[in-house]
Amino acid sequence: MSIIEGATEEALRHGAVKVKAVHLKLGPLSGVARDALLFSYELACEGTALEGSRLVIEEVPATVFCRSCEVERALTSIQRMRCPVCDTPAPQISRGREIELVALEFAA
Description:
Elements: H1 2-13, E1 19-26, H2 34-45, E2 54-59, E3 63-66, E4 71-74, E5 93-95, E6 99-106
Parallel strand pairs: 1-2
Antiparallel strand pairs: 1-6, 3-4, 3-5
């Protein structure tokens, strides 16, 4: 619901009556299941400026900083918080927690 509220407020701020698409960045560590979000989106948009819009999700990989390699690396599994190259434990998460509204497409 916070995605809908934020997008609705932003649309109103820009004077848009209708939103065609909402673009999000979503990480696997965000605590939000992609399929559940897509399933509930249409229902949550009913009666708002977002009704009939589509939800476009860009999946952001979970990334950690490896102290041994001194570089950020994408995890091969979020259950295994280790560098995929050197196998060193990597508790410092750089990306993957996002649930970020990045763009709105307005109807003409």
